[in-house]
Amino acid sequence: MNNNLSSQDIAQYRRDGFLVIENFLSPDELAFWRTALDEAVKKRNGNKMPDRKEVYGKGDENDKSYYDNVFDQLINLWQDNEKIKQIMLDERLGKMAAELAGVDGIRIWHDQALIKKPWANPTSWHLDTPYWSFSDRRALSIWVALDDATYENGCLFFIPESYQKTTFENPGIGKNMGAIFTTYPEFKTSKSIAAPMKAGSCSFHNGLTIHGAHANMTPGFRRAMTCAYMPDGNAFNGTPNILSEEAISRLKVGDLLNDNEITPLIYTKI
Ligand SMILES: O=C(O)CCC(=O)C(=O)O
Ligand SMILES: [Fe+2]
């Protein structure tokens, strides 16, 4: 695993709000991640969550049939597959996330397989952090390509530096590719950066970076394994997101999100 970040990598991430790392996984690691993903997806039987079909409070219900054809989205596979658990709880991933975010501790918020099936819809420009149950401008995700991600099958695109200005307000993710630019007109004329990646390469992006992806214009699959990271020390903001009803019933707004069964601490500096 190519997990050493240079000071230049960190500076680039802090400026742009994203960073691409080529050849992140070795061929053997890539093979292991692919096997793990295929096993986990088969077992999940189409359910988004380990304990239920859907995520709470997405707020995009009107566009459900469209959104269901953006990608298959399987969340928290680490909780029901040992291989994914081994992959996701790897301290090296946590250390990279911590170094980029500039924090001392990193928890898994949730992992997520994002599989663009043949002919899938595009992923409209959106933000991630406003969906989450905590509000931290440093929160971020890793996105690992398990197939080549190309202009043809739905590679990611980012609006550089956008994370420095966006807020926790949620513009949503609907059918209109560019709807977010109504909320953020200052980025309407920004040049987007495409991130085509060979299988085994990865990117990190800040959860407040405006990002999206092409449609899949091919008969093949575009598989990605991702994980959202929460800096340690964050508190519940009242948004349910991936938390279970049982977990929510025990939480008040302002309570620390520090249950290792739900959000494992995978790295601490000290
Ligand atoms: O894979 C995609 O199409 C979108 C990925 C994304 O939005 C994310 O990882 O936050
Ligand atoms: Fe996203």
TrEMBL record:
InterPro entries: Phytyl_CoA_dOase-like (IPR008775). Transmembrane segments: none annotated. Pfam families: PhyH (PF05721). It comes from the Bacteria. Keywords: Dioxygenase, Oxidoreductase. One of its GO terms (molecular function) is dioxygenase activity. This is Ectoine hydroxylase-related dioxygenase (Phytanoyl-CoA dioxygenase family). The keyword Repeat does not apply. The keyword Oxidoreductase applies.
